[in-house]
Amino acid sequence: MPILLAPIDTDLTIHQVYGSDKTIQHLREMGIVPAMHCRLLSKEPSGVILRVGESRLALDHNLAKAISVIVA
Prior knowledge:
CATH architecture: Roll
Strand content: 35-45%
Low-confidence stretches: none
Shape: globular
Structural class: alpha+beta
CATH superfamily: Ferrous iron transport protein A (FeoA)
Number of domains: 1
Distance between the termini: 12 Å
Order of helices and strands: EHEEEHE
Number of strands: 5
Largest sheet: 5 strands, antiparallel
């Protein structure tokens, strides 16, 4: 499911990352890669906030749309 539709405060596993090579590389540099565990902390009008490892990341809707997750 797209991360924008995922339930808040639930453990998730990144299933796939879509988009241009530039988008995929940018997300990879932030640690967002398939099989990585994360948690959706909040959904905001401007995007989403994720916990990936010990980091919190704010992603705008364009980047968030590129991430597919499954409930862990």
